[in-house]
Amino acid sequence: MSVSRSQMPDLLRLRMRVTWRTYTATFTARMESLLFIPAVLLTAHGIQMMLVVVLNFALDPHVHFRSLSISLVMLMHVSLLMLFAGWSIVPALGFRTNEAIDLRRLQLLPIRFPALYTAASLGFAGDLSTVLPLSFCVGVGRFLFGTMQVTAGWEKTPENYGLLGLILLLFLALLLQGSMLTVQLFQTLLPKVDLTRILMLFFVGFLVFVVALNMQVIEYPDGTTLFDELYIDRYNVLPTGPLALAIHELALNNTPLVWRFLGQGALWVLGLAALNAGLMWMAWSGTFLGVENVLNLERLGLADVSRGSRKGAQGWPMWVRHPILVVAYKDFCNLLRNRHFFFYKTLPGLLAPTTILLAGKYNLNLLRDQYDLQTWFIPLYLGLALFIFVTQANLFVANYFGFEREEISALLTSPVKRHHLIQGKSLFFFVILIPDMLLIASLSLMLLPHPVVGHWLVAFGFLFSIAIILLSLGNMSSVLLPYFTPLDRPVITLQGAILVGLANTATLVLTALLMIPATLLIAGPWFLWDSPGWYALTLPVWVLWLTAIGWGFTAWAGRLMPDYEEWIQLRVRGVL
Amino acid sequence: MIVTSVWPNGGDNGLMSAVLTDLPHHLRLTAPPTPEDLLAYPIILTSLMRRFGDFIAVSSIDLAVPKGAFLGFLGPNGAGKSTTINMIIGLLKPSKGTIYVHGQALAAAPLACKAALGVIPEDLALYDRLTAREQIDFTGRMFGIEPELVAQRAAELIALLELDPGKYVGDLSLGMRKKVALASALVHDPPVLVLDEPFNGIDAVSSRLIKSILRSLTQRGTTIILTTHVMEQIEALCDHVAVIDHGRILVSDTMVGFRGAMSARGYDDMEHAFVALLGRDEPEKGLSWIGGDG
């Protein structure tokens, strides 16, 4: 057969039409779409804030680079920002572009690669779920403009806004193409490499190295003096810090220090990349680019049969009798043997929050003696830390409870009371989550020695312990719905979405309300004494963010319903 | 139990496509089931209906499956088979009507009804990272069987079905997975089995073994509902048959009665009879570019 004309317009039309119908096919669908928009916007706002705060304080030109010209500082600043943002966003965006255009199906068609590539690049724009990663760009824009104002004296003129818009557009285009290329390169160049294992081993080694550095088991020549000069207590966790210092030393012709900082920056980049590998690849899960496909992880996992089988062949211990224990033991066996779940869900869910807390710690130390910012920065930091931790933990919760997909019928056709099913699932979950929570709380307390911060951390540990339990319960209510309304509710109905959303929001508001007296009780005197106004202002922000998370996860968790895909198909076909 | 002979007449809602009328022995209860009916018919559906929004997937089904029957439940894609099965096994709540399983109403005593059912769902619903032995252990214990007894039955099932007890379920072929699902469905010795396409992907040797097991089960009184698209399997195994289309039972009868009725109308083989019953017994069509009539 022959194909004589370009299929790209058809591809774009197809993609847009399917997307449009998904969001507008029925009244329910339209209402869900409307509900999703504020969730996306509010969550995007949180991401922007996070980006702006983290980047601003990681790399402040007035502190670090007094010897350089302001234009050079700005150039370096912006370049590093782009590097950091690109590093953060490219994997997620790459997945989104590939998923949105459904390359698996399109690659079966006799379409030339450029047409496929371009259609994939452009066609994703109609997919609402791609908006979320792009909110990073908005954060970048805000930060860029702020930087220009500070360093180059830019004014808020229409021309400058236009120029900024163009820069961002160019940046977005570059990210998009970079993302596509990354995905293609992964597929082409690394089809057999067990990169996950390599990176995870590297990360463990690197973690040991960093601990040794901080415990002064390993001496870092000349580092202490330099760091003292730069008001850096220890080693900056963000990759931009060491890289910026390397450039700074390059400008001063201190070649040996350039290499040291470059090496340190590279280590941080690789360490964090390793840590985030699970998160990045989680996004590709289920596609032909998923780790299980690209790296043959599933096959590797199954090769463990010889080890697991001898014990597994003998069956379960006799004490596993009660249905709660049977369900929990089933999850214990089924999930802990699952490398896919471990790498994609468990490990990122357990470790990523710790990394963020560490990053916050180093940034806080960086700033603590330089600015009179503690009064508002500390609560903001705590808010951010809470935001990130809760987000990660809830992803973990939702992933775990959503793990039952078609298998859920095995549970629901058994003559076991529903509350026993849920108690069994919860038992295993809390066995994993509670030690993680304690670990992170302990790390936070140990690694944030500043007196005020230490004082605050007592409150923080207490607060997020409350928060995580309540929020987890709230989000569990979202993903537990299938256990109460199995195939009977093949839809996230408007009514259902509102009910779940309200239940979630109520839990979140309850969390916020509990936080007020607890905070006042433990840390309130410090605030009342110092700057009560800022504290009062931060509370609504917390509530707003948490509510946004609640709505966002409500919508997201709905996608884990066992028959969601079937329902989508029915809805697109106009049956429902 | 009152057996009536009410034949499909083309339907009253414009949905039915059957063109054959006056078929003998359309089985259903005409009055609420008596205690004797509940004993004699482990599965009874009365006025069963299920709607999704405005779409009616199952419309007023009446069906009574006798004890020890091997019922072939047939229908084209989208006819309502899965919806009906999902309602029987308790995954889907009927919009209207009542389901009795093993003498009890499903809505009133869901756990007791589920305990009486052994199910092989279409997607099998197995846990990939459990071994075959563990999967049987899991099901048996979830059904409240003592672990010691589960262990004893698991050993027998594994030996009979020639399963590798130590292999993860996810590492097994489709046919072996089906056998694990069958073992899980049998371990609690249920009086009613619901099997959704159990022979897909099963090799001839295993298929023969499974058929033999199922036949022996019906001989000792187990009631089996089997859905499949393969007419030969229905002919070889089933002694009862029910055909559903557009959410309505077109005919339910003993296999002997069904064959006799269809034979009298000139349809000697099962596939031909089935297609005719659905009203799709049209002349063969072709594609214009490969030399067909179209």
What do these coordinates show?
The complex is a heterodimer of chains A (576) and B (294). With 576 residues, chain A is mostly helical. Chain A has 26 helices and no strands. Chain A has helices at residues 8-24, 27-58, 61-64, 70-101, 103-106, 113-123, 131-152, 158-189, 195-214, 223-229, 240-251, 255-284, 291-294, 297-302, 305-312, 323-336, 339-367, 374-401, 408-412, 418-447, 451-479, 481-484, 494-522, 524-530, 532-558, 564-572. In chain A, helix 12 crosses helix 17. The C terminus of chain A is likely disordered. Chain B has 294 residues and is of the alpha/beta class. Chain B is globular, with a radius of gyration of 20 Å. At the A-B interface, helix 14, helix 15, helix 16 and helix 19 of A face helix 3, helix 4 and helix 5 of B.
Structural class of chain B: alpha/beta
Query: Can you tell me the residue ranges of chain A where pLDDT is under 50 for at least 5 consecutive residues?
Result: 46-67, 194-200, 220-240, 271-291, 297-308, 365-374, 444-454, 488-494, 522-576
Helix share, percent of chain B? 25-40%
- The number of helical elements of chain B comes to 10
Strand content of chain A: under 5%
Spans of at least 5 consecutive residues with low confidence of chain B: 1-19
Sheet-strand content of chain B, in percent, reads 15-25%
Major sheet size, sense and barrel closure of chain A: none
Number of helices of chain A: 26
**Largest interface, counted by CB within 8 Å of the partner chain's CB:** A-B, 43 and 49 residues
- Number of DSSP E strands of chain A: 0
Query: H/E element string of chain B?
Result: HEEEHEEHEHHHEHEHEEHH
Name the overall outline of chain A: globular
Gross morphology of chain B is globular
Average pLDDT of chain B works out at: 84
Please state the CA-atom Rg of chain B, rounded to the nearest Å. Answer: 20 Å
State the distance separating the first and last CA atoms of chain A: 38 Å
